[in-house]
Amino acid sequence: MAADYDLVILGSSAIAELLALEAKSRSARVAWITFPEIISDWHIQQLLSPNPDWQWQLAVSGIDVITGAAQFIAPNAVQAGQRTLTARHFVVCDPVSLNLRQAQGGWTWQDFYELHHTLTELTIAGGDDLCIAIAQWLHRQGTAVSLLVPTASIFPQIDREATRFLQAQLESQGIKIFTGHRVTATRQADAGQSITVWAGDRRFEVKHLLLPQFISVVPQLNLECVPSRRLHYLTHKSDIDRILAKALFAGWWGQARKVTNHTMTCCHTQPAIAQVVSMKDMQGKKLVLRSVSDRHFAKLIATPQGQILSASMVRESAIFWIEAIAQAMQYRQSIKTLSTCNPISQELVAQFERQQSQPLLALWLNICRDFDLV
User: Fold this and answer.
1) pLDDT tens column, 97-152
2) Which of 28, 97, 131, 141 is a Cys-bridge partner for 23, taking CB atoms 3.0 to 4.6 Å apart?
3) 139 and 165 in contact (C-beta within 8 Å)?
4) Phi/psi at 64 (5° precision)
5) What homologous superfamily does CATH list for 109-210?
6) Cβ(34)–Cβ(14) under 8 Å?
7) Can you tell me the distance from the alpha carbon of 29 to that of 254, in angstroms, rounded to the nearest whole number?
8) How far is CA 194 from CA 98, 124, 130, 150, 187, in A?
9) Residue ranges covered by each domain of the chain
10) Given this chain, do its domains 5-96+215-248 and 262-368 carry the same CATH topology?
11) Sign of the CA dihedral 310, 315, 317, 319?
12) pTM tops 0.85
C-alpha cells in the first residue's frame, strides 16, 4: 500500500522544524505532529516571534502540521487525532527530564502551560535557552523572575566572555540569575504559601517554582510495532544529516549537505547569543579580536594568516552574523572578506590588520636600535 508521506515527525522542538523544512526542500512529502501538552524551545520561539502565525508559514511551505496526541497503530501508520497517517519513515523528538531527589510543590512545563492567570513571582530551575526565553517572556508580562542555573555560567558550551555579557544584559532587564545553584530538593510548606528549594549550598523560600521536567512521549507512542529501519530519533541538529540520508536517500542524489569543518551553537534569547568554533586543531599563535558596546558583544579568534578559528556574538542579529562567519569558515575565506558585512565586522578586520602589522613593526624597531638607524 502506498504511503501518504515520506517523513512524519513527532514532537515539538526547534530542530524538528528545521528537519521538516530541510526535508521539504528536498521534495519530500512531510507531516509534523506537535503535542500541545509539551512546551519546548520551539514553542517559546513562537511566543517571542514578531510573526506568530507559524502554522500558516509551514503550510505555505507544503508541510502538513497536525496538533494532538499520537499513537502508532501499525508498522507504517500513526493515529493523530481523527487522522491516520502512513509514512515510509518516522522521526521522534523526545525531551529529556530532570531528576530531583525530592520534588514537591513545583510546576512542570505542562502545569505552567495550563495556567490562565498572570504570576507576580516565579523561580525557574534551569538555565538553558528555553528557561531564559520563558523568563524574558514572563518578565514582559510583569512577573518577577529568578533563575537557578545549575552550571557555573549560562550556556557553558559558549565562550565565557559572551555568556557574561548576556547575563549582564538579562540582569539589567530585571531577571535575577543565580549561577552554580543546582536544585537538589524541594518541599512545599504545610500552609502551601511557599516552597523551600535546596540549590547548591543555599536554601531559597519561593512563592512559585517551575521545574524543567518533561513528559516523555516515547512510552505513549507504542513504538514496539515500528521496525527500526523506519524509526529515527532526533535529539541534536547533527542528527538531521543522518536522518535525511537514510529517509530521503540524500547522498544518492547529491543533495546531502557538505561536511562542515565547524560546530555552531545558537540560542534564541533576546538579545540572541551564538557561536561557531572550528573543529580543527587550534594550537599555535592566535589573534583575539573584540567589539563591545552597551548593546552588543562580538569576539573573533583567528590565526595571524587570517584563518577564522572561532566567533561568538551577543546581539539581536547574532545568529545571522554567526551564520555568515560559519560560511566563511566553510570555504576557508580570510577574515578580511568580512570587511563588507557590517560595521562590527569592519571594526574586527581593522583590529586584525593592526595586530598583524605589530610584529613587523617590532622587528623594524629592533633593527633600528641594533644599527642605530635614525
Assistant:
1) 445 555 667 776 666 666 767 789 999 998 887 788 888 888 988 999 999 999 99
2) 28
3) no
4) -85, 115
5) FAD/NAD(P)-binding domain (3.50.50.60)
6) no
7) 19
8) 22, 14, 24, 22, 9
9) 5-96+215-248, 109-210, 262-368
10) no
11) positive
12) no
The SS3 assignment for 151 reads coil
Topology (CATH level 3) of domain 262-368: Enolase-like; domain 1 (3.30.390)
Q: Which of 5, 65, 75 is nearest to 35 (CA)?
A: 65
Residue among 297, 302, 324 nearest 312 (CA)? 297
Q: What is the pLDDT of residues 247-275, one digit of tens each?
A: 887 554 444 444 457 788 888 788 999 99
CATH of domain 5-96+215-248: 3.50.50.60
Maximum average pLDDT range among 217-221, 286-290, 353-357: 286-290
Between the CA of residue 280 and those of 72, 192, 219, 283, what are the distances in Å?
A: 43, 54, 40, 9
Does the structure show a pLDDT above 80 at 328?
A: yes
Grid cell of 343 as nine digits: 560595521
